Amino acid sequence: ALARAEAQALSEMQVAAEMEQVEKARAEAQAEFDAKRRKEEEERAAALAAAEADARAEAEYLRLVARGMELADQWRDLKGAAAVYRQAIELRPEKAVAPFNLAGIAARDGSEPAEIARLYLQAMDGCEPGTPRWAEAGAFAYEQLRRPACAADARPEWWTHRGLQSTSLRL
């Protein structure tokens, strides 16, 4: 009877130890699950915040471009328009409209051909290759860069004979 009682006590201790291990594993799994869920929620919140910031920047960019166009209309306030376009470029340098429009103003006010070309090349970079605006920006940049005042300035990668042929085929 004593051996049986000892065996039963040992069995109960083993069951209790196994139950403790199961509970510990469950708690660890729950903690891991909770940590993953918190991380996913933080990533979603960060992505949402980034998307909202991007949308606000895009809206502000469009507002600035519209204001620049309004100021430049009929050559009303080209200096004001240029300042607004510079703000838009600072906000969204990857976009094409503001540098394209600023290049047009710079060409009208007699700015250096290298600066005008730089703006048209920036506009070109912001356009989908092969589109009419891309081609127009490239043509205007080309016209500025071939001027004697730009002889020492760096040329875009497409400036070679082969590059110009390849570029013109996309038009």
Can you lay out the helices and strands and say which pair or pack?
Layout: H1 2-72, H2 78-91, H3 97-108, H4 113-125, H5 132-145, H6 161-169
List descriptors:
elongated, 6 helices, 171 residues
Describe this structure in words.
The chain is about 80% helix and about 0% strand. The protein has about 170 residues and is an all-alpha fold. α1 runs parallel beside α3 and α2 (about 80-90) packs antiparallel against α3. It is built from 6 helices and no strands. It has helices at about 1-70, 80-90, 95-110, 115-125, 130-145, 160-170. The chain is elongated and about 110 Å long.
Summarize the structure.
This protein is 78% helix and 0% strand. It is an all-alpha fold.
Straight-line distance between termini: 99 Å
Helix residue percentage: over 70%
* SSE series: HHHHHH
Structural class: mainly alpha
Radius of gyration: 33 Å
Strand content: under 5%
Largest sheet: none
Low-confidence stretches: none
Record field, number of beta strands: 0
Instruction: Supply the number of helical segments.
Output: 6
Shape: elongated
Overall mean pLDDT score? Answer: 91
